[in-house]
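Subject: sequence -> structure tokens, single chain

Hey, anyone have a minute? Need the predicted structure for the following. Not urgent.
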Amino acid sequence: MPTASFRIDPLDTARAAVAKDMDAISERIRSLKTRRNALLPVSSLPTEIISSIFFLLSVVDPVCVASKLGWIKVTHVCQAWRNVALDSPLLWRRIDGLIGRQWAYEMLGRAKDLPLALTIPYDFMRFVADPELLARTFELTLDAFLFSFSLGEILESPAPILESFWLSQTEGRLHSGELLLSTTLFDDNAPKLREIHLSNFVLPWTCLKSNSLTVLDVDTTSGKEEHLFPLSDLLVALKNCPQLEYLKLHNCLPYRDVPPRDGPAIVHLSRLQHLMLAGETACVAGLFQALCIPHTSTLSLSCKGSEFGSEYDPGNDPDVILPLVFKHVNGPGSAPFQSVSLELPIGCESEAYLEIVARRSSLPESGFDSASKFYNVHHSSDAELKLLFSRFPYYPLVPAFPKLMSNLPLADVHCLHVDAHNPRDWSSDSSWAEAFRCMSKVIH
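Reply:
Had a minute. Here:
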């Protein structure tokens, strides 16, 4: 039987030859570009310098959803830069799962055996549920949709080198029983843990057993009583955290479950620099009264009164917290305020609010508003005192304000900003003139 023969098309042969020549030319051009780049001044920099520059860039432009590849774009500039980046595991140890699983696993491989900083979304929780991976994580950020089995595994696994922990729940409000953390955090094996940040998660205070903790930040959108653990547990936890420097508890303060006490505070936080509390006045006062903090600590208190239409509770009136504030700001060694910003009541009785922001130091030049010719400290992030009173339908805030002013150290104030939305409420009150009489040094 005759065998079939195939004829090679001369045109195909010619095309293949041309393509081969084009590839050779492209390779030659690439080689010439590499030689040209090597002659540039930047190419004379040592590899260590270039790597350090890339590291600084990774801090300024991290890999995240907003910036997409972020600093990784430098690996697309030239082969030399790409090789430097790929040979620098330190550049790859900050992994953001929001950019996709493929990239997350690629960065994990490039980080080699270095400690990791992980940012993990709720649909990628299994990635960090691996105990071996958690054991080499020094910074962990979790965005959990709901309390899940994977999240429970993470919270109950040892984290021997973990220093910073962020846990948030961005979808919806707190629901009873769904978002409660385990009674032990990281199996009580996180000796280096210094920071805990919780958003919309309720924390059993008994979890806090770290002598190294310096930052505790808990902020929930719901302060419902059924979610709040006892004040006695919180006080025990704070006693176990003597190194605290920053304490923020917003809408998660428990009601006082121990009898009021007029004696000395029962929790000493001698290193505390910033205290921020928000909730009903009785809750804020209950905790603040139990703390002994330096008079130099900045104080930010947001106090709410009784709900409009609810039964009047005198325990939520500003009179409960104000004596404690006066004692703090007038304590031994405390300096008088030099800059004060006031925002006075607005709206109906149920919506009226009062805010005071004060600083002990002069305002920087950036605090001067050239448009209004006023110094405005209302939004100063470094103010030593911030007081906000809101939702007091049964308590007259306007008449109480002069009493508040007369008890603050305001004799040295030289920058004063007053924002009075409804001046008719207070302009006719003669006691207001007395409240401001001590401010004889005001120049702005």
